[in-house]
Design goal:
The protein is α/β, with parallel strands linked by helices and 320 residues long. The protein has helices at residues 2-6, 51-58, 81-88, 98-101, 108-118, 124-137, 154-167, 184-201, 212-218, 236-241, 246-256; strands spanning 7-20, 23-36, 40-44, 66-71, 74-75, 91-94, 172-176, 204-208, 221-226, 229-235, 306-309, 312-314. Strands 6-7-8-3-9-10-12-11 form an 8-stranded mixed β-sheet, sandwiched between helices.
């Protein structure tokens, strides 16, 4: 496995189906990408695109329906919960809502201490020392260890979430919309903190967000998902300068570009309509009902994910 041996994490043709009221929902469909050591892969798409599910599959928090997930060369899909347990310390997650992931009856310091205890790291004295150091590193005073979650702001809680995830010395961190619920000024501080910590600890991130501006700032590689499928995948600089899939172009237009007074209106493309139900995805290209350049062939023939240039793949009949 030469390619995946280089990567901290490698997803290969990973699919996930859910059965909901006797109907099968294809939440993730043959998704493949690598997360190299010390790098960030951004996962973008609207809500319902499957990006959070992909993040959980990457951490083996959900079983796959098909495909393989290699963590440092070990196929997690072939392992049992017991054999995966020693690897858990190296694979952590930062949630969008840290309040929901913290016990309201435990101080935030105790929550970080608890993570260290869970993985049997250090003596109790060493754990508290580490808790204090981490709280300070993420921008919280050591005295805040005694605060309860409800006493902290959203930004402070997310710093606790980061301290807890990083306390156990992970190599891979899935950041699942970690700044979406925060004010813009706080978002910038948290993103900067994540970037600094990545450099200091040589962390690999999967960064999940619907905010392409944030993804562009943090990511080395970007994977664009639509209805559980990869529609474009490229190094971040290529994707943002030369987006090839109409969906990616519309996402970038709608999020990053502020129309100037003299700019012709037709240059901006809005995303039309709602994402179709994943229970009954459209025929052909699943994006055809919303695509500004769809042709007849798009509703009948499924486009293949094909390589446009080194590292840049796109799933569209007309991308070039
Ligand atoms: Fe649009 Fe057709 Fe390309 Fe799909 S295959 S993105 S519908 S042009």
């Amino acid at each position: 496995m030469p390619a995946e041996a280089e990567a901290v994490l490698s997803l290969q043709n990973v699919s996930k189906d859910f059965v909901v009221r006797h109907r099968v929902l294809h939440a993730v469909d043959r998704v493949s990408f690598d997360v190299p050591k010390g790098k960030t892969v951004g996962l973008v798409g609207e809500s319902g695109s499957g990006k959070s599910t992909v993040g959980r599959l990457g951490l083996s928090l959900l079983p796959t329906t098909a495909g393989n997930v290699y963590f440092k060369g070990q196929d997690l899909t072939k392992m049992t919960p017991k054999t995966i347990r020693p690897l858990r310390r190296a694979m952590q997650i930062i949630f969008q809502d840290p309040l929901a992931s913290l016990s309201q009856r435990m101080t935030v310091g105790a929550a970080v201490f608890d993570a260290l205890s869970l993985h049997n790291i250090g003596t109790p004295k060493e754990r508290w020392k580490r808790v204090d150091a981490l709280m300070e590193r993420v921008g919280l005073s050591a005295s805040m260890t005694q605060a309860y979650p409800f006493e902290l702001s959203g930004g402070q809680l997310q710093r606790v979430g980061i301290a807890r995830a990083l306390s156990v010395g992970p190599e891979l961190v899935v950041c699942d919309e970690p700044v979406s619920a925060l004010d813009v000024s706080i978002q910038i501080q948290i993103i900067q903190l994540l970037r600094e910590l990545q450099a200091e600890m040589n962390l690999s991130y999967i960064f999940i967000s619907h905010n392409l501006a944030v993804v562009e700032y943090l990511s080395d590689e970007v994977v664009v998902l639509y209805l559980g499928q990869v529609v474009e995948q490229a190094p971040a600089d290529q994707l943002f300068t030369r987006p090839s899939h109409p969906y990616t172009r519309v996402l970038i237009d709608s999020i990053l570009r502020v129309p100037k007074a003299d700019e012709p209106q037709q240059k901006l493309e809005a995303l039309r309509g709602e994402m179709p139900s994943p229970f009954s995805p459209p025929s052909g290209c699943t994006f055809h009902g919303r695509c500004p350049i769809a042709q007849d062939i798009c509703s009948t023939e499924v486009p293949q994910l094909r390589l446009l240039e080194a590292g840049h793949s796109v799933k569209c009949h007309f991308a070039e």
